[in-house]
């Protein structure tokens, strides 16, 4: 993946090892733009005359890394979730765990034909956006309803408060490890601790659910991509993170009518409006940013020290300022809402 | 040394040239995304380069003032704010070279963090006062960042 010229040859040998005795042809290798975290490319493969379009997804070299995540964890998660049959996602087919065959740790999965949800939404009017928002809520419910029995490689928190304690401590830990003090993170950690919402049952959490990580197939159905930040946690993290990303990647599906989105999710999931509402969604929009910051800030630190030279990492500084902005805006809005409620009552 | 044109002016010209000459000649989506990121980074550097040291100095002074207020209000349980203030005052940047001022600014950031942690449970005017320093810091960050939407999506 590091050298696109070599990839058809490497992939041919890799697939021949996976299919001993088969005739394998690989061509039309082309890198895909979109995700910032991993190297991704599509290619055509013929195995004993049967044509398939596949996607390779691998780690960039360390000095070009923009976020450090575990391919083995992603591979196991995708295989286990696919086996449940309840959530639409690409089928992960092959894995080069130690990177000896594809020059980097990489997996190969089926290619899903479709259009990124962000692009689809950009061309839609209000009524169509409402329908897409409903589908997004339904996709989230499907992910959060996944049977956890096949996901024993994921850490299971002792309980909800223990899990939230861990998230808040993670904020403090990444700030402490960063080369310069970040008062926004320290403020956020204290604020999150003092303003906990009602607990929800812990479920599978995608971890990066947003409209760029959802494909819309020709029949209109959704497929969820990019399972590298998946974990067991509070399902509202996915809703909040999706909402957060709408700020930097309009048009939004949730923010056009947050009440309606929350109502749809709350009813379909059975969690109810006390648990899922615009206020709890706002809380989790900032709490869930820990997933991105936990993997992005160490690469910013490496960049500052001259150990990382990724252009994306330099660019991500604007992303971090946007996190800071959201921390203050969201916490202010929630406090203003609480104050208004106290006045009314 | 030659100080005119300024660094920000030079960067503005580079950005304009990239936009008018390089960008129209590019059709590869990956290269277009890279150009978008380069432009964003150059814009950030252009916003910082003429003011960075002065902005850090101004904010350090503002943080010291508000931290003294937290201590004076009796909100500094465990003297964590006072300890960070002592650390800052004992390790002033020895020059106006950017790395020296960044070091001092980092220590001031720790003072602000502890002041926020002390003032948040305290509530009221003290909390709002300390938070206002954080809001000021955010305004600077936004001024540097400008509008931000992800490129290449």
Indicate the topology:
The complex is a heterodimer of chains A (345) and B (153).
Chain A: H1 7-18, E1 24-31, E2 39-47, E3 50-58, H2 71-84, E4 92-96, E5 106-110, E6 115-116, H3 117-122, H4 126-144, H5 160-177, H6 183-194, E7 203-205, E8 214-216, E9 222-224, E10 231-233, H7 236-248, H8 258-269, H9 278-287, H10 290-304, H11 311-315, H12 317-344
Antiparallel strand pairs in A: 1-2, 2-3, 3-5, 4-5, 6-8, 7-10, 8-9
Chain B: H1 7-22, H2 29-49, H3 52-72, H4 80-90, H5 98-122, H6 124-145
Helix pairs in contact in B: 1-2, 3-5, 3-6, 4-5, 5-6
Report on this structure.
Chain A contains twelve helices and ten strands. With 345 residues, chain A is α+β, with helices and mostly antiparallel strands. Chain A folds into two domains: 4-10 and 17-110, Phosphorylase Kinase, domain 1 (2-Layer Sandwich); 115-344, Aminoglycoside 3'-phosphotransferase, Chain: A, domain 2 (Alpha-Beta Complex), CATH 3.90.1200. The longest helix of chain A has 28 residues, at 317-344. Chain A is globular and about 75 Å long. The radius of gyration of chain B is 20 Å and the shape is elongated. Helices cover 76% and strands 0% of the residues of chain B. The longest helix of chain B is centred in the C-terminal third of the chain and has 25 residues, at 98-122. The A-B interface holds A 31, 33-34, 36, 116, 118, 175, 179-184, 186-187, 190-191, 194, 212, 248-250, 311-312, 314-315, 317-319, 321-322, 324-325, 328 and B 29-30, 33-34, 37-38, 40-41, 44, 102, 105-107, 109-110, 112-114, 116-117, 120-121, 131, 134-135, 137-138, 141-142, 144-146, 148-153.
What attributes does this structure have?
heterodimer; A: 345 residues; alpha+beta; Phosphorylase Kinase, domain 1; Aminoglycoside 3'-phosphotransferase, Chain: A, domain 2; five-stranded antiparallel β-sheet; 12 helices; 48% helix; B: 153 residues; mainly alpha; 2 domains; 6 helices; 0% strand
């Amino acid at each position: 993946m590091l050298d696109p010229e070599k990839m058809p040859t490497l992939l041919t040998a890799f697939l021949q090892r996976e299919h001993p005795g088969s005739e394998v042809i690989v061509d039309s290798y082309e890198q895909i733009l979109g995700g910032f975290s991993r190297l991704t490319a599509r290619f055509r493969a013929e195995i004993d005359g049967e044509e398939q379009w596949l996607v390779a997804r691998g780690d960039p070299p360390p000095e070009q890394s923009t976020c450090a995540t575990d391919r083995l964890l992603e591979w196991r998660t995708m295989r286990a979730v696919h086996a449940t049959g309840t959530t639409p996602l690409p089928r992960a087919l092959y894995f080069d765990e130690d990177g000896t065959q594809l020059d980097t740790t990489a997996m190969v999965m089926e290619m899903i034909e479709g259009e990124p949800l962000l692009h689809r939404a950009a061309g839609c009017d209000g009524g169509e956006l409402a329908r897409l928002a409903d589908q997004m809520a339904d996709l989230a419910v499907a992910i959060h309803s996944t049977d956890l029995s096949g996901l024993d490689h994921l850490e299971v928190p002792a309980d909800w408060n223990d899990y939230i304690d861990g998230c808040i401590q993670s904020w403090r830990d990444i700030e402490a490890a960063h080369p310069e003090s970040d008062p926004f993170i320290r403020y956020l950690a204290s604020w999150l601790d003092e303003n906990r919402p009602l607990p929800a049952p812990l479920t599978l959490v995608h971890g990066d659910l947003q409209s760029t990580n959802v494909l819309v197939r020709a029949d209109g159905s959704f497929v969820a991509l990019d399972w590298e930040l998946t974990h067991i946690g509070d399902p509202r993290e996915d809703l909040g993170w999706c909402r957060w990303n709408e700020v930097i990647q309009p048009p939004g599906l949730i923010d056009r009518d947050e009440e309606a989105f929350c109502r749809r999710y709350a009813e379909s999931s059975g969690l109810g409006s006390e648990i899922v509402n615009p206020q709890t969604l706002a809380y989790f929009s900032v709490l869930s940013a820990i997933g991105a910051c936990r993997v992005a800030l160490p690469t910013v630190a490496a960049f500052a020290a001259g150990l990382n030279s990724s252009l994306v990492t330099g660019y991500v500084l604007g992303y971090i300022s946007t996190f800071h902005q959201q921390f203050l805006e969201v916490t202010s809005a929630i406090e203003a809402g609480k104050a208004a409620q106290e006045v009314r009552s | 040394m030659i100080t005119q044109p300024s660094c920000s002016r030079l960067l503005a010209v580079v950005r304009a040239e990239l936009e008018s000459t390089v960008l129209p000649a590019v059709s590869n989506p990956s290269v277009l995304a890279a150009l978008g990121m380069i432009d964003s980074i150059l814009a950030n550097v252009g916003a910082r380069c003429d003011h960075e040291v002065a902005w850090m100095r101004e904010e350090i002074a503002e943080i010291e003032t508000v931290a003294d207020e937290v201590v004076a209000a009796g909100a500094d349980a465990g003297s964590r704010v006072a300890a960070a203030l002592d650390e800052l005052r004992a390790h002033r940047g020895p020059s106006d070279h950017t790395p020296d001022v960044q070091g001092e600014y980092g220590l001031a950031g720790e003072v602000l963090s502890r002041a926020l942690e002390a003032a948040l449970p305290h509530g009221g005017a003290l909390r709002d006062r300390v938070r206002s320093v954080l809001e000021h810091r955010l305004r600077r960050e936004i001024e540097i960042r400008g509008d931000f939407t992800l490129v290449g999506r």
